[in-house]
Amino acid sequence: MARGRELLNLKHLRVFLEVVKGRGVSVAAGVVNLSQPAITQAIAKLEAIFQQRLFDRRSKGMFATEAGELLRARGHRALELIGEGCALAFKKQARSGGPGSGNFDQLITSTQLRALLAVEHSGNFSLAARHIGISQPSLHRVARDLEVVTGLDLFVASRQGIDLTDAAKVLAQYSKLAYAELKHAFEEIDATRGVESTRIIVGSLPLARSRLLPQAINALTAAHPSVQISVVDGPYEDLLHGLRHGEIDLMIGALRFPRPIEDVEQKVLFSDRLGIFARAGHPLAGRRSTEIDDLASFPWVVPRNGTPTRRQFEKLFREAGKEPVEQLVDTGSLILMRGVLRGSDRLALISVHQMRDDVDSGHVIRIPYNLPDIERPIGITTRTGWRPTPMHSRFAEYLREAAGVLT
To answer: What is the pLDDT of residue 1?
Structure first.
């Protein structure tokens, strides 16, 4: 993101929203306590950053253009999120007996929030200063100014450097969500002048990586070559954290029921079935049926603890009155699981979709075993209330089309 965009001034954004609301500079001046020339200058700076006119100037007032309406919606939500974060941060410290007042969201600056996020990222004032390109004394001063403005204790020394207090973590989370809204504003406004700047950040769980996600990505980028897509792999808990903090736009993979937390939403794309697989030429190959004792007599390669498939694996033996197999290799890597499976007599309980190519190539076989009706819902997880850009919506459509081919 260009430097001007990264430093989008929250005060200018507040001024812009008042001009939209009052349909003119004079009304806004009385609300934000700035002179009319200062407000005009703030609007001009925003229009320069977005490279678009944000207002139509008419005799009856100033009316938001298409770009202005997009900024109004996203900007309003961004400031709402900062306000919610400030209120929750105050409550968090109030519960611990700390001082402070919750009415400080209008006083916080972009520079202060960037300092907070840099310290969260780096865990050190010096590294944080380097990260955002200012001197260490300057960053330290800005960080302490934020504590004065909020009345909150935000930073605490630790053995590793600087940690955020619980109140600061809440404020940082909502600040990142606010900046995610402003990122979408830039993408949507760029599209109105024919510039495609969308960057979609996808959190990918293992099942989505083999067929579903590649098909959707190829379809989207064929239709929109300028779209940037970043795929983040990792354990479910890490991806969920990134999603809830605005670092990931959406997650693709096995859904969790019940929902892990109330501030996310889940939409099912299709239901996946599990099967038991082994290498070609495995001792159990060629059998018409297999018993639980046969399965228990071989070592297994399995997903990590806490994953839905791992729970199904343990349930398989438990419901048959057997102790789960102890000779296990557990991993979150499908590539490693495939390699271990092909090169040993281990068995694996894996998604039928994930193993389709391996079965078709003859490297892997499916073991005939009468599994209970094990299905896993596969789908999209997003933040509650998240409003996708048009390009995000198109990507979701391509995901649905790819899911239709898989079922």
So the answer is: 44
